[in-house]
Amino acid sequence: MLMENLPEDLQREIRRHLFKFVKNVHIFSKMGDSKMGDTILDAICERLRQKTYIKGSKILCDGGLIEKMVFIVRGKMLSNGVATPLGEGDVCGEELLAWCIENSSVNKDGKKIRFPGQRLLSNRDVECLTNVEAFILRAADIEEVTGIFSRFLRNPKVQGAIRYQSPYWRTFAATRIQVAWRYRKKCLSRADTSNTQFNHL
Hints:
Elements: H1 8-18, H2 26-29, H3 35-47, E1 49-53, E2 58-60, E3 68-74, E4 77-79, E5 84-86, E6 91-92, H4 95-102, E7 105-106, E8 112-113, E9 126-128, E10 132-138, H5 139-148, H6 150-153, H7 156-165, H8 167-200
Antiparallel strand pairs: 1-10, 2-9, 3-6, 3-10, 4-5, 4-9, 7-8
Helix pairs in contact: 4-5
């Protein structure tokens, strides 16, 4: 209520100061200090909502919908699916941003095309190890921001941050590589066994 009575420029500066932790997130740090990057960060800060979770709260459930990004200000979480600890300055649910960018399309009028029935499901459980203070960004707000700034968010540097610098995606990719390598070794082992049996005939 106090913010609403202040000049818009002052509101923006206060938000940038209060939510400066957003720039510590790998994805948003790649936006740099450009005018467009600041505009996107301002749009995100306007939509952040404060949230408190108690110890033992489930933030994400395996097979459940991912409906928000959670920016951790204080406290600890554990991502059980890929055994990744999360703490102050980390973000949970960043895959939702990547999904919104990849699944956003714009028609000739510049309006976003929505695909009904498409939702992102979690493949991990995330639980609070302690009481957690955080700010959340809802899926609807992320869709709105990515729809408005879709061209900028498709920048290779931003995409690289999402795919290669995000702790979740790094761990997820490592897991997939390990599975693929085990499958490859199994196929090679079978091929060697078949060749050995053939040579004995």
